From TrEMBL:
This is Non-haem dioxygenase N-terminal domain-containing protein. SUPFAM superfamilies: Clavaminate synthase-like (SSF51197). One of its GO terms (molecular function) is oxidoreductase activity. It holds the Pfam family DIOX_N.
């Protein structure tokens, strides 16, 4: 087995710490925020408390888990299995749908944090396909750009 690629090694000052930034407390998995979305099924529900809870979780933790979201378990499992099937393909196969300047959606495996390559693979896609976006970030530019998803050939039910 070879050595670890230097591109993945974080400088000591950028490595994760095992305690919260603003306290001496250590992080335990049962402290990870769990956000219950069941109240959102009521169209008259005030969404402010949930939004506040999500904001606090993101600020303190950077992530959270969601319960009572209304998605059927079989759908979630299908998505997880199909994603696993895609990410288990060869690098060559996955890179056939690699995102670039022309196609910002698709496969990506070269994300960097603090100039160090992240240990992750990504497949970005639009929920609304095609999606219309401003052509540039300039406010006075009224030109629009039509973006579409690119999908891999395998697995065939990835779409």
């Amino acid at each position: 087995m070879g050595g670890l690629d230097e591109a993945f090694i974080q400088a000591p000052e950028h490595r994760p710490i095992t305690h919260l930034t603003n306290s001496g407390d250590f992080i335990f998995s049962d402290e990870i925020p769990t956000i219950d979305l069941s109240s959102l099924q009521d169209p008259n529900c005030d969404k402010t408390p949930i939004a506040t809870e999500i904001g606090k979780a993101c600020q303190r933790w950077g992530f959270f888990q969601v319960i009572n979201h209304g998605l059927p378990l079989n759908l979630r499992r299908r998505v997880e299995n199909t994603a696993a099937e895609f990410f288990n393909l060869t690098a060559e196969e996955k890179r056939r749908v690699k995102r670039d300047e022309v196609n910002p959606m698709g496969y990506h495996d070269e994300e960097h944090t603090k100039n160090v390559r992240d240990w992750k693979e990504i497949f970005d896609f639009f929920l609304q396909d095609p999606t219309i976006v401003p052509a540039t970030p300039e406010l006075e530019d009224t030109e629009l750009r039509k973006l579409t998803n690119q999908w891999p050939q395998h697995p065939s039910d990835f779409r």
